[in-house]
Amino acid sequence: MSNSTRRSILRLGAAGLAAPAIVAATSVRAQGTTSWRMQALWGGGTTPMLYEEKFCERVAELTGGTLEITPFAGGQIVPSAQAFDAVRGGAFQMMKTFDGYTAGKIPAHGFSSTVPFGFPDADQYEAWFYERDGMELARESYAPAGLTYVAPTVYGEEPIHSRVPISSIADLNGLKGRFVGLASAVMGDFGVSVSPLPTSEVYSALDKGLIDIADRGDIKANYEEGLHEVAKYLVLPGFHQPTTATSYVANTRAYDALDDQQRAALAVAAREVSGALRQNILVANGEYLAKFREAGVEIIDLDPQDIADNRGKAVESWKKNATDDLATRMMESQIALMEELRLL
Question: How far apart are alpha carbons 218 and 277 in whole angstroms?
Fold first, then answer.
């Protein structure tokens, strides 16, 4: 990031909403409007998708309309599995993705998406991105593909939904479960037979008994998907995905063609949306846990000490799956911060 871009970020972040409209009015006349398309992960009308729309609106506001991003729901332009290559090839300029989906090809993405038994608080994970070298390492992971990592959206735990009662980590052994990213490997080391099913297949797989347990999304999103109808147990805390980072990723050529103010607006809007969505989920969790209970779902709270006692075993699994230099550096950076925070 250039010094001028950093100055633009500080200017946008500190000046509030009034100044950019005045500054950008000249930019519109001098440079015209840049139009981007962005495909997100989420279905239309869902809470996360509404926040992607807020992100696009905020970017337009901060640039005075010189950068307009049109948001599309997951799969609306190309199937979600093809988004990486589509942005890389310039079919559209930006995607909102979950790095865990590409962890099989880019091992570092197992650590820039969610770390099983990792940071238990979203602020800790976000601090790794912004206060340590997380952002730089994430950008390094995408650069060879002609893509630029713009910023994460960080929020808290996702629950496990189960057809069977689980009272301890030891109860995972022998179960069949749906997990993706690094969680696939870690849960496998805890004895789970893992199927990395698409999100869209979680409901039917639980309903048919093809899997016993599943990760899918946050508590509200999973209720809206109807998981209370097919899994009568909800397990917390979400040790398999204690904190989550989705990511804004842009085509590098398109990103480099932006001016400093536009790039700064992307960074500012992304960080604002990260905090706003996290707070929305935090409030919604209480409301939707009550809805799960009303639907007859038993909420199981695991012993925090049981999770802490098993973190060391998870670390060994991380190390096995940090299979290249970048993944190792990313993992070691996170471990160093966890040790300072007395999590390890």
Answer: 11
Residue 162 phi/psi, 5-degree rounding, is -140, 145
Give the global pTM. Answer: 0.86
250 close to 87: Cβ distance less than 8 angstroms: yes
Chunk the chain into consecutive blocks of 10 residues (it has 344) and report each block's average pLDDT, rounded to whole numbers.
50 38 32 92 89 98 98 95 96 96 94 96 97 98 98 96 97 96 94 91 96 94 94 97 96 98 98 96 95 98 95 95 97 97 92
Strands (E), 137-203: 147-155, 160-162, 176-178, 193-195
Buried b (16+ CB within 10 A) or exposed e, 182-195: bbbbbbeebebebb
Residue owning tokens 């996170």: 334
Contact 299, 236 (CB under 8 A): yes
Residue type at 138 in one-letter notation:
A
Alpha-carbon distance of 134 to 126, in angstroms, equals: 9
| Rounded CA separation 327/193 (Å) | 24
Residues 6+ apart with CB under 8 A from 165: 171, 233, 298, 300
Q: What residues form DSSP beta bridges with 170?
A: none
Residues 6+ apart with CB under 8 A from 344: 311, 312, 315, 335, 338
Complete DSSP assignment for 285-314 = HHHHHHHHHHTTPEEEE--HHHHHHHHHHH
DSSP-based three-state secondary structure for 49: helix
Structure tokens at 340: 């300072």
Q: 209: left (phi > 0), else alpha (psi -120 to 50), else beta?
A: left
Specify the DSSP element, H or E, that contains 202. helix 202-207
Question: Is the distance from CB of 214 to CB of 178 less than 8 angstroms?
Answer: yes
325-340 and 134-142 are packed helices; what angle lies between their axes, rounded to 10 degrees? 160
Q: How far apart are CA 40 and CA 80, in angstroms?
A: 8
Sign of CA dihedral 308, 312, 313, 319: positive
Between CA 166 and CA 177 the distance in angstroms is 13
